[in-house]
Amino acid sequence: MNLWSRRDFLAWSSKAGLAGACAGPLLTGGLAGLLSGCKTAEIAADFGRAAGVLDEQQAQSVARVGTAIGRSFEDITPEQEYYIGRTVGATILGSYKPYADQGANAYVNLVGTMVSLSSDMPETFGGYHFLILDSDEINAFAAPGGLIFITRGMLRCCVSEDAVAAVLAHEVGHIQHHHGIQTIQRARLTSAFTILAAEGARTLGGADLAQLTDIFEESVSDVVNTLAVNGYSRTAEREADRAAAVILDRAGYDSAALVSMLEVMDTKLTPGGPDFARTHPSPASRIRDIRPALPAVRASDPALRQQRFLAALPRI
Amino acid sequence: MSRMMSVQVQTGQLRSSPSFLAGIVGEVAYARQVQVLEERAGWARVAVPGTSLAGWMHGSALSSKRIVLQAGAEDVERAATTGEIALAGKGFSEEVEREFRSRNPNLDFRRIDQMQASAPTMAQIRRFAQEGQLRLA
Prior knowledge:
The structure holds two protein chains of two kinds.
Chain A: H1 6-18, H2 29-37, H3 41-51, H4 56-64, H5 78-92, H6 102-117, E1 129-133, E2 140-143, E3 147-151, H7 152-155, H8 161-176, H9 179-182, H10 186-199, H11 206-230, H12 234-251, H13 257-268, H14 276-279, H15 283-290, H16 303-312
Parallel strand pairs in A: 1-3
Antiparallel strand pairs in A: 2-3
Helix pairs in contact in A: 1-11, 3-4, 5-11, 6-8, 8-12, 8-13, 10-11, 13-15
Chain B: E1 4-7, E2 11-15, E3 24-29, E4 33-40, E5 43-47, E6 54-58, E7 62-63, E8 66-68, H1 73-82, E9 85-87, H2 94-103, H3 110-117, H4 122-131
Parallel strand pairs in B: 8-9
Antiparallel strand pairs in B: 1-4, 1-7, 2-3, 4-5, 5-6
């Protein structure tokens, strides 16, 4: 059973969205909304002071965190990306069952680690990890920080180890370009940084923690929404495919396997279907985009790679 | 003076040469500052001040921002105004995940923990690369 229906997801995400608020820790009521709409925190501080909502010390704190406004995904540390990724992953596993075959998962982890080490970002806070999902859907997800999920349906589109490497390299490409965390709405990050900057070194207080967790939940929702429902932009997909071609080439895999894999996928995907077709450009258009970036000479695809591919995924 | 960088991964690994094929000669904890001695093709040879540890780390494991584990008031002020300091454990942190999990007890993080705990060893990866006629960076 596919638990990840669009309806289920929307129910989950709307719950997460309802929980949220954009507010700094020193702000209450209407002023919280004002700050999220203001260009600078100084305006909010002046307003708060004049309105008598904030005392002088609080107003100065808000003014000090002015630079929190305008912070973007680039200011999210790898450690924070790691925690977002873990929860994105747990959410995906709320809808898909892991595939229990340990040998198949160990193989996918070897191929995945090989390609991740050839990426521009071989090291992430918690490292790259790969898991097969027990689903006939054709799909793959990259949670921020390096957790990558691939369905059995997607693996069935792969006729060689090089094709498996191509799918995983595409997902590593999304992680390397931070595509996941870029989908988090900027207002959420502004709110999070505002809380952090004003909150300081002490342990988060109850209200701060609750607000930050609201923002965290909404941020995770933004990412999962993109991965499972809306998909990335065409530009992001093209970037991930280009990254994949470079990664495959560096690792010694045949980068043209990306095209072979897309050709198989094209024959298996149902247009407008509930999986990869909904969240990705058509395989034909991706082939058109990536073909010019591929080297003229194909890398070798030794028989031993094919043997271990067939041995590792016999029941996929 | 050579520049300082911070380890921005959970466990930083020092290697004997600038390659994932090279042996691991030591580990450096998250947020530790290291001195960059030399840079080559995306790798940095670093020394860990106060220890005899030195080795090569991939550039993606290092940040030019100073990462502070226990910040004093001045550090916090600086972080708030310049963005130069990342406060480790702040923001979307273990604490926030714990709060999120208490709100969403139906979400199962055990499989995520298992997923993160199981990774091939470097020896397995090297053998896998060799047998498959693949290259390691």
